[in-house]
Every structure is written in C-alpha cells, then in structure tokens.
Design goal:
Structural class: alpha+beta
CATH class of the largest domain: Alpha Beta
Helix content: 25-40%
Number of strands: 11
Strand content: 15-25%
Order of helices and strands: EEHEHHEHHHEEEEEEE
CATH architecture of the largest domain: 2-Layer Sandwich
CATH topology of the largest domain: Nucleotidyltransferase, domain 5
Number of domains: 2
CATH superfamily of the largest domain: Ribonuclease H-like superfamily/Ribonuclease H
Shape: elongated
Distance between the termini: 70 Å
Number of helices: 6
C-alpha cells in the first residue's frame, strides 16, 4: 500500500495481506498523523475506495450520497476522493512502486526479512524517510494544503461503522454475537437502531441516539419472559369466540 504526495513525490507505504478497507484506513491515518489531512485523494475505482457505479447512480437518483467505509471516513475529514479512469493517470504512484520494487526488495533480501511485521518495521524505521530525502522534490508553490488534525478523533473516524437493530430488551446482534446495552429506561427503546463502530485496534463502540452506551457481551440470547397467569399453577382457559363473532 503506497501513498504519494502529488506536489513533492513524498511517499509513505506499508505492507498488508490484501488491499482492504482496513489497510487503506491504516495507511491514510499514518499519513495524517505524520503530515496532516490532505485536500484530496486520487484513487483507483476499486470498491474499497468508491462504491459500485450502479449503486452510486441509484443513490444519486434518490437524492442521497452513498459512501464506502473508506469514503465515509474521508468525508468526515473533508477529503475529496477523485477517481482515476486510466492507469496512465496514476503514473506518479506507479513510478514510486517501481522504486520500492527495486530497492526495497533488495533491502529485504539483505536483512533476511520475510514477514509483513518485520517489513513494516523496516519501512517505518527509516527506509521510507531515506527514500524521501533522496527522491522528494520541492513543491512548485510554498503553500501546504494539508490541514492540522487537531480536534479530530481519528480512531473514531477510521473504523467500520454499521447500523444494527435494537430489540425490546435492549439487545443488539453483531457478527453472530449478542450484546446487552445499558438500559436507558425500563420500557423498550424509542429508537430501534444503534450505530456500531469497530475500531482498527479491535475496540467496539455502540452508540444509541448519538451517545455512547456501555454494554456487556452475552453468551447466548436470553429467553423471552412469558406472561404469568394470575393464579400460580392455574392455566387461563383459552378464549372461545361466540357464535355471532365476525371470525365465524
């Protein structure tokens, strides 16, 4: 995974098993923590970054925006996502890839590094900074359009965010597990949905009506409470409709 500044050629990269939403978020978060929030990102048309064209068109006809998880995070930071429509349009980043494929491969071989974790330690430990010192150039203009990230909760922005239904017992199901929310009242919830945020560090946060709620994990879904008869041990007789009842 590789990010390249279009103005200077400055680069930042990391290894991941696949080009996933989580990997893309981790890399962009690294960039922001080091350089600030960029104005725009020039990306491939993969569904990690932008929604399928058909889904996007349907959303547009309904008068709403549809984002991928990565796109939602960018929108929350005010980053414009620009789609590339040809390989040639991304020539700068492809040339950067060639530098990594030459110099980095040799460095990994010399150091006998053969795992993702060790390779990322090499990249963040000075290899990428050395590349930038050798190959980055001065921007044509002195103004830097990166914005300071102070005031943003990057952990809460770079997460997988989903909505889930909330039961009358204040229980929500997520990833085949059940979670009991702290009850706000003895009555069923007035709003029957919650927002779940799964952070990159593995933490899970549940919000009800835009306020974070505490919760406990349940081993299994508790049985529904049955209505008890007025007299213990005595069953109420079933109601039998009369002969003139509309049901007949």
């Amino acid at each position: 995974m590789n990010l390249v500044d279009d103005a200077t050629g400055r680069t930042l990269s990391m290894f991941a098993k696949e080009e996933t939403t989580e990997a893309a978020m981790r890399l962009l978060k690294m960039w922001i923590e080091k350089y600030g929030i960029p104005t725009a990102l020039y990306v491939d048309r993969k569904n990690v970054y932008v929604p399928d064209a058909k889904v996007e068109e349907e959303a547009r006809q309904e008068g709403r925006e549809h984002y991928t998880q990565f796109g939602r995070a960018c929108a929350g930071l005010g980053i414009k996502v620009i789609k590339a429509y040809s390989p040639q349009a991304k020539g700068r980043v492809e040339r950067s890839h060639a530098v990594y494929q030459d110099r980095l491969v040799k460095e990994l071989r010399l150091l006998e590094i053969n795992s993702i974790e060790e390779a990322n330690e090499l990249l963040t430990g000075g290899f990428a900074d050395d590349l930038n010192r050798k190959f980055a150039v001065e921007a044509r203009e002195s103004a830097d359009f990166h914005r300071n990230s102070n005031g943003y909760d990057l952990d809460a922005i770079f997460c997988i965010e989903e909505e889930r239904s909330l039961s009358e017992d204040w229980i929500v199901r997520y990833n085949n597990s059940y979670y009991q929310l702290d009850r706000k009242s003895r009555t069923p919830p007035t709003v029957r949905s919650v927002k779940i945020r799964h952070y990159l560090n593995g933490e899970m946060h549940i919000s009800y009506r835009n306020q974070e709620s505490t919760y406990v994990s349940l081993d299994q879904l508790p049985p529904r409470e049955s209505k008890k008869s007025e007299t213990p041990g005595v069953r109420k007789p079933r109601h039998k409709p009369g002969p003139n009842h509309p049901w007949r």
